[in-house]
């Protein structure tokens, strides 16, 4: 069976077949066709050992991501793949074991293993010791490793230990490491309108460099580069347009504790309606603030920083609907930044003086690739609120769609 490939994918797989690198890395922009190609390359490798009963490895951040990103697409080529009790599937008469490798002790799962090859998905999401252990376990003659990943900070070990050694050869002349970089436009199967839309909505700076151009760049400068006080600050809000209210909470004492009341309209734009920020206040004070918010906006959700579970427990004891906010920092920032870039984020300026102070002082730590822990109190509370609402809103939407299809017998 023949499968259509983009010109970029075709060039890469031809070099993979002819040069036979031991370690191949596919890095670059999202939706550029990296994972699909990695699957084809890996299946091609396993097929070389058909019916030999050898062991192979698939590594991913979680078992769920392995199913979603790898096994589901593999089934298009080899048919249904059912995991056995050892988390293995059978492909071309060989056992392929699936390991989740995001945690520091994940490497122990592959200790003592001998494999003829490995595919590692989302390489930067895997723990460095896991990546190295998997590579060391691919000791069978002719073993090959394929790693696909999106770019991150250029100091990440996937780049410094492997990509930066592109072209490295062994003493026998065999190519040891080959790295390929992908840009969004390399995926010629994508609708041009889709590409234009993605480029237009991707936040400036680091996100554009990584997600569109596939570059390994450090985060630097202001985090919300697209925030424009003339466009994003507003004088007041029309509450008749708001379809949902919710709250973000960042606990504090020596630094500001912050509660922000957010609104969302039907098209999906977010509004920072009011902010409550104080230092050196005990939990009783914040309970009173939350109850006042409840009195005015109803029994809405408070998305809280999970670092203070005792405060969340107190809120719940007071019948305040407190939940742990989703705290993936980079994804949360990207979610807020996209809303800013597409003018779907507004702030009632007179009601948010700390936000006004922090927004242009909220900057990246270029060495760590994360925000500087200063001028971030209101920024954190906004991130908990918006990111959590986006995640839970999409889950509910997906469930509603699923239920609707199921009711139709589909």
TrEMBL record:
Q: Which domain of life is it from?
A: Bacteria
For this protein, the record's Gene3D superfamilies field holds: 3.30.420.280, P-loop containing nucleotide triphosphate hydrolases
Organism this protein belongs to:
Salicibibacter kimchii
Please give the name of this protein: PBSX family phage terminase large subunit
Give one Pfam family, short name only.
Terminase_6N
